[in-house]
Amino acid sequence: MKKLFKLAAALCLAVVMAVSLAACNKNEQTSEAKEGLQVEGTWKKSLLKENEGAAAFYSDELNETMTLEANGSMTIRTMVQGKEVKQTGSWKLNGERLTVTNLEAEGNKQDKTYLYKDGKLVEEGNSKAIFCYVRQ
Predict the structure, then answer these.
(1) Along the 136 residues of the chain, how does pLDDT read in single tens digits?
(2) What is the separation of C-alpha 37 from the centre of its chain, rounded to a whole number of angstroms?
(3) Which H or E run includes 30?
(4) Same domain? 86 vs 107
(5) Do residues 47 and 76 both lie within one domain?
């Protein structure tokens, strides 16, 4: 009977500890997740880590910044042959998904969705993504 009581007590203690640990891990969020993800500001186009060796090949594409304003407007600035090309649009954040609508892309509305991952904005649904945006 004593062994059964000790076994039951140990089992209860193990359950309580497991629940406590799960609750602690759930509450351990980044400060951005606790306060809500803040994406406003300027982001610079960069190569994803696995593509960093190709920087010279993509040097023109890397001359780009995306500025997200608090009012939901967005500006992309790209340097092409020494001249700035500017595109404007809007953005919307839903959790860790950032949807960018570029209203001036070849006269057509163009949406792209990025996931906030490891401090970067990475295009969602593009398994062959080469670029990301990093906060400046």
Answers:
(1) 555 444 444 343 333 333 333 333 333 333 344 356 889 999 999 888 776 767 666 776 778 999 999 999 999 998 888 888 888 899 999 999 999 998 665 566 778 899 998 889 998 887 778 888 999 9
(2) 9
(3) none
(4) yes
(5) yes
Do both 115 and 62 map to the same domain? yes
Are 115 and 95 spatial neighbours (Cβ–Cβ below 8 Å)?
no
Which tokens hold the place of 30?
Answer: 């980044």
Give the DSSP H or E segment for 27.
helix 2-27
Q: CA 13 to CA 8: how far, in whole Å? A: 9
- Per the structure, the count of domains in the chain is 2
Nearest to 75 by CA among 60, 62, 65: 65
